[in-house]
Design a protein that fits this description.
The complex is a heterodimer of chains A (about 400) and B (about 90).
Chain A (H helix, E strand, L loop, with lengths): L11 E2 L13 H9 L11 H20 L8 E4 L2 H12 L5 E5 L4 H12 L3 E5 L9 H6 L5 E7 L11 H10 L3 E5 L18 E5 L11 E5 L37 H17 L1 H20 L4 E4 L11 E5 L4 H12 L1 E2 L1 E3 L4 H7 L6 E4 L7 H17 L2
Parallel strand pairs in A: 1-11, 3-4, 3-5, 5-6, 6-7
Antiparallel strand pairs in A: 2-8, 7-8, 9-10, 10-13, 12-13
Chain B lengths: L7 E5 L3 H13 L5 E4 L10 E6 L3 H10 L6 E5 L5 E4 L2
Antiparallel strand pairs in B: 1-3, 1-4, 2-3, 4-5
The chains are: A alpha/beta (about 400), B alpha+beta (about 90).
Chain lengths: ~400, ~90
Amino acid sequence: MSPRSTTPRDFVYLDNAATSLPKAVGVADAVRAALLRAGNPGRSAHVLSIRSARDLFAARERLAGFFGSADSSRFVFTENATTALNIAIKGILRPGDHVVTTSVEHNSVMRPLRRMEEGGCRITVVPAGRDGVVDAKAVLSAIRKDTRLVAVVHASNVSGAIQPVGEIVRGARRLGAFTLVDAAQTAGGLPIHLGDLPADMLAAPGHKGLLGPQGTGFLYVREGVPLAPLIEGGTGSRSEEDHQPDFYPDALESGTQNSVGLAGLAVSLSWLLRKGADNIRKKEMGLIAELIEGMERIRGVTVFGPKDTAKCVSVLSFLVEGMDPAETGRRLEKGFGILVRAGLHCSPNSHRTLGTFPEGTVRLSPGPFTTRKEIALLLRALRKISASRR
Amino acid sequence: MSRPSSEEMVLIFRGTHQVMSAEKHLKKGGVAMRLIPVPRRLTSDCGLAIRIPAGLQAKARKVLSAVKLLPKSAHRLLNQGEYETVPF
């Protein structure tokens, strides 16, 4: 997938799970253009306000198209996935409610849940296996009469393991619990159709697999889900009333929106709609397969997670025997210009599950613009680093 | 701001997203329309309203009903800038 638009030429960027680089073609130009002419969307009726409102509408419509929803008003813009997850968790739970979640969640789920626990909620954390995959039946059997919410990550940001969210979501709905899917590592790189995946809420960032600017994200809320807003304020609608509007997206979207970033997201979504998530997945999984095959041949390198491209997204964790992951990351950058992420990746429980706590792992995350040549470079670099420690 | 004539109708929606969505569907459905600032006599909302020729009301209703996007209210301009709220 070409052309490469914005990656600094001197680096091999393998940290797309943190934020994608380069962005989709045209995103940077759209952001610049919007910055030079952005009025406040939905507040005024002059031409620049309308242009910004149109940018928001385009981004929302494309989100609905990309995720297979007929109603774009249910896609609420947020600054990232973390904000979206906080809105979902703190908006649906009441004191005394029970929540089921898993041991492979990111801190953006666990920390708001622990906060709610302090306020009287109860949490059951279902452990995943050593391969980083949680058993759907174990999650469903943890649901009780008072379970209000089942919160589950779509794919681990540490091992890349895809969780059985379809089975969990459908089962939880049958048992009367609301469902929240954290799609931070899957939106864009793994096809998601909200008709097939009937989640009540789905959160994702705009700047990872969706290839848009940082500062963008969304929460999808299915109609009928009783979500109280986390933030209230000006919406440009029902201005005569003291109370927050109850209709979407205004109910959950107070204050001036990031119309500049969202103008970029609208462009990246357009690119994604043209390319298709299936094609992006095919490309990325080809690279992951080469990585797994190559890394398993390097003495002293241990790969964690499913090691099966049918069961993971474009995220792979590894360790070089006897070497601190931060040191491996440093050597990759300083010696070879390869940018990766090392550490716990804000997901300590995932590492406890994989047996890599507290040191963490080195994480590789190719994106749609990563090339086979870059993967070969990484493998050569790893061979050298691994050999140097003996 | 250009005022609608008595032959024109102003449609008020709940929020900006609904206005944008109505615009998309009306244009797709071949209904001539314009975005206008919400007349202050009608609502204190900050944003936009849609103006259509009154003669296209039935067509607009058909288009907007099909997508469950009926306006919050509809108004016709009377003399001296007064509006009459009318059923849509």
